[in-house]
């Protein structure tokens, strides 16, 4: 029912009023019951006290006749009581309420002596409290019944009830107003959050929600939302940067192709010249294709479309084949790739992806190491992981760049990288692949001495994230 109300403030207030009313009614019922019991107890006590007085004025005469002491007149006039013989005959009735005729004294009290209390309602709205019992006076048994009108008890009870009936709606109205005021005050930060959140868009993604109190639930909500905005802003900026870097990278070879075409169209040249131009255009085209392949790889990786196809394979033959594949590039520069290992081990991984990661690092070693130098590939393993290190004797990477070279499009020397056919995406792809296998890539480099890249892969069968 309450869920139909859209406004949280109104819903909270209604719930509050409902619960408050329920508690008040419970409280009122409990209080009235207690008051009734208390008043009835007082009445019973008065009856008991009356009996003590009665007992003092009763006298037993000759022939077991019953009479009262002379000074007992006011008592007889004011109090209502009856005395019956054990044979169920009325011995005395004071009758201060002449209109009321009580039911005859039944012999229900035959068993056991002592008094019992009960309430009795008669026609004419007469409510009575009765104390009756079998008593022994001066060795004689009687049935005694003392009666009191409950009118004052009910009067008090009803006047209390009236007070409650007037006070209850008043307190509910006050509570409702208080509840509405409180919920409005408590929910005010939510309104402020909504106003700010509505204004946050692509152009002001740096803005954050107000945090009134970081320790309460709403503050926590703001903080969580702000953390989400942080992440969104970062990934948005990364995406923006990536798009602009990618566009820039794509434009360079395209511009080169266009200007080569334009220049060669300007005048008649020898066929040799055109062949050279076409060769350069094809080279740029290959570079473009490689770049687009890398971009596609990363975009599929980012959108989680890349599935690992893991298989079990031997590490040494796998590395040997990879080196063989890239060998022609090393041979062009008269470089030697040397493989060292401390024994073979089986790996459970995506063979193609790990090969791609390894090729990128080997390709860098060949690119950035001088001609006729040696590149050393070392394989090591222990019970937990297999490591492959690729060391070259190139110029090395300056310390300030070491932790950045795995970023997309990051290059220490852009011109040199481009000249060597690099796009700045190779290490980013390698890192992604190795991390997907729960592995790591570490790099150590000394300027003018060389660099060493080490890939570590866990060798347990669950060494890659399951898809
Ligand atoms: P690139 O296509 O430019 O080689 P990478 O992502 O593979 O892109 O590498 C990023 C940058 O890290 C390179 O541009 C280069 O500056 C540096 N780098 C990578 N490997 C080596 C290496 N073996 N020796 C020196 N510099 C390296």
Written overview of the protein:
With 467 residues, this protein is α+β, with helices and mostly antiparallel strands. The chain folds into three domains: 155 residues, Beta-Lactamase; 85 residues, Helix Hairpins; 159 residues, Histidine kinase-like ATPase, C-terminal domain (Heat Shock Protein 90). The protein is built from ten helices and 14 strands. The chain has a five-stranded antiparallel β-sheet. β13 and β14 form a beta hairpin. The radius of gyration is 51 Å and the shape is rod-shaped. The C terminus is likely disordered. Adenosine-5'-diphosphate binds next to α7 and α10.
TL;DR?
With 467 residues, this protein is an alpha+beta fold. Helix content is 52%, strand content 20%. It has 3 domains: 2-156, 2-Layer Sandwich (Beta-Lactamase); 217-301, Helix Hairpins; 308-466, Histidine kinase-like ATPase, C-terminal domain (Heat Shock Protein 90, 2-Layer Sandwich).
């Amino acid at each position: 029912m309450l869920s139909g109300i859209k406004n949280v403030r109104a819903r909270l207030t209604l719930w509050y009023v409902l619960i408050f009313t329920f508690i008040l009614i419970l409280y009122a019922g409990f209080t009235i019951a207690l008051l009734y019991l208390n008043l009835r107890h007082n009445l019973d006590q008065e009856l008991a006290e009356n009996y003590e007085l009665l007992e003092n004025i009763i006298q037993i005469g000759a022939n077991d006749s019953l009479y009262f002491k002379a000074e007992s007149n006011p008592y007889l006039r004011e109090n209502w009581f009856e005395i019956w013989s054990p044979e169920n005959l009325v011995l005395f009735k004071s009758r201060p309420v002449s209109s009321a005729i009580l039911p005859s004294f039944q012999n229900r009290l035959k068993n056991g002596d002592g008094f019992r209390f009960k309430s009795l309602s008669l026609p004419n709205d007469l409510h009575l409290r009765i104390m009756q019992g079998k008593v022994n006076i001066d060795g004689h048994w009687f049935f005694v019944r003392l009666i009191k009108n409950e009118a004052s008890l009910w009067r008090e009870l009803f006047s209390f009830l009236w007070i409650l009936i007037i006070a209850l709606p008043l307190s509910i109205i006050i509570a409702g107003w208080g509840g509405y005021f409180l919920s409005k005050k408590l929910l005010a930060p939510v309104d402020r959050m909504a106003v700010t959140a509505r204004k946050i868009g692509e152009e002001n993604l740096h803005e954050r929600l107000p945090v009134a109190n970081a320790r309460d639930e709403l503050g926590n909500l703001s903080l969580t939302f702000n953390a989400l905005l942080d992440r969104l802003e970062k990934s948005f900026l990364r995406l923006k940067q990536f798009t602009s870097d990618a566009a820039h990278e794509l434009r360079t070879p395209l511009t080169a192709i266009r200007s080569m075409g334009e220049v060669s169209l300007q005048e008649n040249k020898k066929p040799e010249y055109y062949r050279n131009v076409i060769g350069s255009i094809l080279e740029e085209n290959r570079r473009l294709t490689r770049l687009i392949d890398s971009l596609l790889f990363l975009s599929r990786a980012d959108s989680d479309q890349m599935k690992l196809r893991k298989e079990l394979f031997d590490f040494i033959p796998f590395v040997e084949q990879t080196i063989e594949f890239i060998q022609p590039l090393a041979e062009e520069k008269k470089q030697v790739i040397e493989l060292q290992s401390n024994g073979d081990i089986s790996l459970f991984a995506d063979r193609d992806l790990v090969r791609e990661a390894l090729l990128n690092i080997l390709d860098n070693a060949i690119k950035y190491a001088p001609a006729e130098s040696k590149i050393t590939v070392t394989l090591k393993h222990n019970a937990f992981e297999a490591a492959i290190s690729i060391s070259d004797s190139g110029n090395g990477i300056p310390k300030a760049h070491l932790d950045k070279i795995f970023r997309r499009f990051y290059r220490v020397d852009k011109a040199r990288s481009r000249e060597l056919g690099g796009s700045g995406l190779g290490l980013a792809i390698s890192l992604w692949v190795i991390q997907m296998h729960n592995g790591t890539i570490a790099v150590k480099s000394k300027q003018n001495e060389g660099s060493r890249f080490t890939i570590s892969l866990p060798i347990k069968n669950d060494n890659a994230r399951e898809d």
